[in-house]
Design brief:
single chain, eight-stranded antiparallel sheet, five-stranded antiparallel sheet, 21 strands, 33% helix
Length: 443
């Protein structure tokens, strides 16, 4: 996955684009601070000039969460591990560290995060601020693994937050949407490196639906993909293993992860975009192409996978007990709609957590993610899907496409007012505001 694009105009400032190409912004200036002190000075200067400030990671959010016409902060120079505390089981990293680099560095130290999402191209601050998650029966999102963080507030101060220091800020800033300040460093809980055995297996839709609770209960990490226009799913179960390591062979890995999941999938989506009538037949072929396989490796090599086919995504968090009903409604909607959907639908789970605006805040959660190939009109599909998800009390992923506003969030997040009151205290002048935050948090 490429970083965010940034192109300089002939006579004007650079234009920033997100990974999916769905959001552009033309900031007044772009700053790349080499130290926390330089970042503090950039924030103070912007405030003096009446310019708003937003930090941007690798632009993997599909929303305009990081867009600004003011000062765009690129934290890539604030990267690397600041320190490892083996006794406490923590690692402190600079905010611009890319998850891929963190995972590899931790593995060299014999350490690992407990759980992670399936993409590792984001910065740690961008991933946590928008609520990036994987799937887990007992282990939650990346943000839920935070034990402390630093952020520069609107007045240029550096605030340290944990359960003991500024606990009310810590409760909210782990998934802060960039609304409370600019995160400069994060302390994560880590544990000794372990092995996971992944079992990938095709399975019929009706069987997965009937056995969903059983699969979640029996596996540490369970997820599945349903291929629209078919009754076929692909399931994945990840569980801790005593070993030995048995990674996929190079040929098998290339066929599954590069040829089928990226190369052929790219070609199929390109064909489907040009000739939508071919999509159901392509879906039937694709859903049968992936075969069962089992392999054992260190966590990041099992949890994550390359994603080179660009797409647009909507994902909603539902009460876990409602997810199969919602998925069945989604399937029925697709079947009767005439829509042609070339991307599989992804279903994952998370335990309840205590983060103010986490999509899993206070409730056992399951996620349904819908995708469409970049450049394919997505509004009709996403609108119909969103209607189903909101009817089940869904909470949209903060970094993915949705149309919800502050009034809706006040209904589905019991602690929403707690977050907005904290924002009023930390950033009363909305130095870190933008149009997206005005919509989702109110003004």
């Amino acid at each position: 996955m490429a970083d965010t694009a940034q192109t300089a105009g002939k006579n004007g400032p650079a234009t920033w684009r997100n990974w999916a190409g769905t959001v552009t912004a033309t900031p007044t200036r772009v700053v790349t601070p080499a130290s926390v002190g330089e970042l503090q000075e950039a924030v103070r200067r912007a405030a003096e000039e009446g310019l708003r400030v937003k930090a941007v990671g690798t632009g993997h959010s599909f929303t305009a969460a990081a867009a600004t016409d003011g000062v765009l902060v690129r934290p890539q120079a604030l990267a690397g591990i600041r320190g490892i505390d083996r006794a406490a089981g923590t690692v402190t990293v600079e905010a611009g560290t890319v998850l891929k680099d963190l995972n590899r560095a931790l593995a060299r130290e014999g350490l690992s995060l407990t759980n992670m999402g399936d993409i590792m191209e984001q910065t740690v601050s961008g991933a946590t601020s928008t609520g990036t998650h994987g799937t887990g029966r007992d282990s939650a999102s990346i943000a839920a693994q935070i034990r402390g963080l630093e952020l520069v507030t609107a007045d240029g101060r550096l605030m340290t937050c944990s359960e003991k220091q500024n606990p009310e800020v810590f409760a909210a800033a782990r998934i802060g949407l960039g609304a409370l300040g600019i995160v400069t460093a994060i302390t994560f809980a880590v544990e000794p490196l372990f092995l996971l055995t992944a079992r990938e297996e095709p399975m019929g839709f009706d069987r997965v639906a009937a056995e969903f609770d059983e699969h979640v209960a029996e596996n540490e990490h369970f997820e599945f993909y349903w291929f629209p226009h078919t009754g076929n799913c692909n399931t994945k179960r990840n569980n801790r293993s005593q070993g030995p390591a048995a990674p996929p062979g190079p040929v098998s890995a290339w066929i599954e992860d590069e040829l089928l999941s990226n190369g052929v999938f790219q070609a199929a989506n390109s064909l489907g975009r040009a000739l939508p009538a071919t999509i159901p037949a392509l879906a039937r072929v694709a859903s049968r192409a992936l075969s069962a396989r089992t392999y054992t490796d260190i966590p990041y090599k099992v949890f994550t996978s390359p994603r080179r086919v660009r797409f647009v995504e909507m994902e909603y968090a539902l009460p876990r007990e409602r997810v199969i009903e919602a998925l069945q409604e989604l399937r029925a909607m697709v079947d009767r709609s005439g829509l042609r959907i070339s991307f599989p639908v992804e279903v994952r789970t998370a335990p309840a957590d205590d983060i103010t605006l986490s999509t899993a805040s206070g409730r056992e959660t399951a996620y349904i993610a819908v995708h469409l190939y970049k450049g394919t009109p997505y509004q009709a599909y996403f609108t119909a899907a969103e209607r189903i998800f909101t009817a089940h009390g869904g909470r949209p992923h903060w970094g993915k496409v949705h149309t919800r506003d502050a009034a809706y969030f006040a209904e589905v997040y019991p602690r929403f007012g707690e977050f907005t009151a904290l924002r009023d205290r930390l950033d009363p002048d909305r130095l870190f505001g933008n149009d997206y935050l005005r919509r989702v948090l109110g003004d």
